[in-house]
């Protein structure tokens, strides 16, 4: 601080450097345009929003691997309601921090993708105006039935019903999930297969154990009988 | 503090009718960093009485958490101090981990330190930007600060899926591993950050306007700072060497070499508080460099069930947040929900000395003093 005002000029040199540098180096810019879509293709009105699923995800500069917006329900290949994974156990409804999920369990069971009779959600509504995109529902779901969507252009002119997403709109195929989160979906599929194998192995082991126990019991009984006979 | 007769009393002796001017600054005042109100009594331009009023942003955080499982209140901690969601997560995870006694994997511990130090950079860079904004330098310094902040938030988004509401920490580790190439991108950012700090210091630290407006303004004595329970950079600016990263060495902070900047005087003014943050950023960069060099491969989370029932116990987990000591106090009663959940917010407790710092100063200085405390109303009101 030898000359009064020297510090101010030093600061001004920095701003000048930034001003000139911003023409050559992108990291000097204080604001950046979203580059994921060409300017002439920016949506002008509601009707212009992408209709096709996953269309906005072609560029990954703003939407990345872990991006999460609102939850969606998964179904396997086939008719959505025939292969829905959700069994309406209502764990996500209970655990949801802002309480934005509403589920009504079906009264009768229906066959799921594995051919096992299961309950299904008669109603499954998510109020996305309440949802805070925290992903707790995904983490607590034991059936891998609910995952995060990354669709973010969801504005609607309907103030009340528009943000309440119903079951049929929430249902998305596993293929779509693979398209938006390839790594995560692959890991989840792998985990599901492993879980299933472990479950079957456990079941088999339990059955074998039961069988062995029954055999041992029968053998013991036969022995006892034989003993009685000799006596 | 005010020794001479008040101005308006002197004028009254001359036969003029005068009185103190009462101003309600806020709750919607751009300088108050949220919905915060200061009831100020002015004699001319001098503050003779100041009463902070808050509670406008009360969201029932503590009671909400008592009515949901331990895991479910994790995303709500993001919203306490919304600039530092990562450190908020950590403090809560630290408290809950004491209840369930789970071991955190090595890689997760390193990533926690990396996230916490990046958060400290985000917070300090934001604070300095807003602080200069409060001084009247609209735009330039704040935009430079936000440019750097945005680069760090991009890293957060890549790792956790959200820029600000990260919800990334879990009991016993982290939610997911960082994506491929993330560590390299972080290394690149950390290598470039000191250059930004050099430039920022050149821009601000010798500026005569900043010096004359901050030096000697808002003095906080060491005695008052300790007695009021002030923590964090504000306490260190008043000449107390106290940093929980050194005192508690939670996580793996004992493995890193870093210094704790503090002033050697008995009082701290706005300039000290501003400079402490600038210096702390350099130390954060040093910690980040070490953590990024040593980070091992491995698991990211220990074995913890999503819903658990801890044994009845009382725990307190605390960390050195960017704003000060952030603590979570939990009482478990053997159910899946905490019986009592209490946050010790650094912003609120640091705010209690506002009146003492402002009295006798000018009204324009009150705004700077508030800015130098570094509050976020989400945390003050909860």
Write the layout of secondary structure elements.
The complex is a heterodimer of chains A (231) and B (382).
Chain A: H1 6-21, E1 71-75, H2 91-95, E2 101-105, E3 110-111, E4 117-118, E5 121-127, H3 136-140, E6 146-148, E7 164-165, H4 167-170, E8 171-173, H5 174-180, H6 182-230
Parallel strand pairs in A: 1-8
Antiparallel strand pairs in A: 1-6, 2-5, 3-4, 5-7
Chain B: H1 7-13, E1 21-25, E2 37-43, E3 46-53, H2 61-66, H3 74-77, H4 85-100, H5 106-135, H6 140-160, E4 169-170, E5 173-174, H7 182-204, H8 208-214, E6 220-221, H9 222-227, H10 233-237, H11 244-247, E7 267-268, H12 270-294, E8 313-321, E9 324-332, E10 338-344, H13 346-351, H14 354-358, H15 363-373, H16 377-381
Antiparallel strand pairs in B: 1-2, 2-3, 4-5, 6-7, 8-9, 9-10
Helix pairs in contact in B: 4-5, 5-6, 5-12, 5-15, 6-7, 7-12
Largest sheet: spatial strand order of chain A = 6-1-8
Regarding quaternary structure, what we see is heterodimer
Mean pLDDT of chain A: 77
Q: Into which percent range does the helicity of residues of chain A fall?
A: 25-40%
Low-confidence stretches of chain A: 36-62
Secondary-structure element pattern of chain B, one letter each: HEEEHHHHHEEHHEHHHEHEEEHHHH
Strand content of chain A: 5-15%
Distance between the termini of chain A: 115 Å
The averaged pLDDT of chain B comes out at 86
Instruction: Indicate the percent of residues in helices of chain B.
Output: 40-55%
Q: Please identify the structural class of chain B as seen in this structure.
A: alpha+beta
Overall structural class of chain A, as computed from helix and strand content, comes to alpha+beta
A few lines on this structure:
The complex is a heterodimer of chains A (231) and B (382). With 231 residues, chain A is α+β, with helices and mostly antiparallel strands.
Description of the structure:
The complex is a heterodimer of chains A (231) and B (382). Chain A has helices at 6-21, 91-95, 136-140, 167-170, 174-180, 182-230; strands at residues 71-75, 101-105, 110-111, 117-118, 121-127, 146-148, 164-165, 171-173. Chain A is α+β, with helices and mostly antiparallel strands and 231 residues long. Chain A has a 3-stranded mixed sheet. In chain A, strands 2-5-7 form a 3-stranded antiparallel sheet. A two-stranded antiparallel sheet of chain A has the order 3-4. In chain A, helix 5 packs across helix 6. Chain A is elongated, with a radius of gyration of 29 Å. Helix content of chain B is 47%, strand content 14%. Chain B has helices spanning 7-13, 61-66, 74-77, 85-100, 106-135, 140-160, 182-204, 208-214, 222-227, 233-237, 244-247, 270-294, 346-351, 354-358, 363-373, 377-381; strands spanning 21-25, 37-43, 46-53, 169-170, 173-174, 220-221, 267-268, 313-321, 324-332, 338-344. Chain B is globular and about 80 Å long. Chain A binds chain B through residues 1, 4-8, 10-11, 13-15, 17-18, 27, 29-31, 64-68, 95-97, 132-136, 139-140, 148, 183, and chain B through 68-69, 71-76, 140, 143-144, 146-147, 151, 157-162, 165, 167, 175-176, 179, 199, 202-209, 211, 306-307.
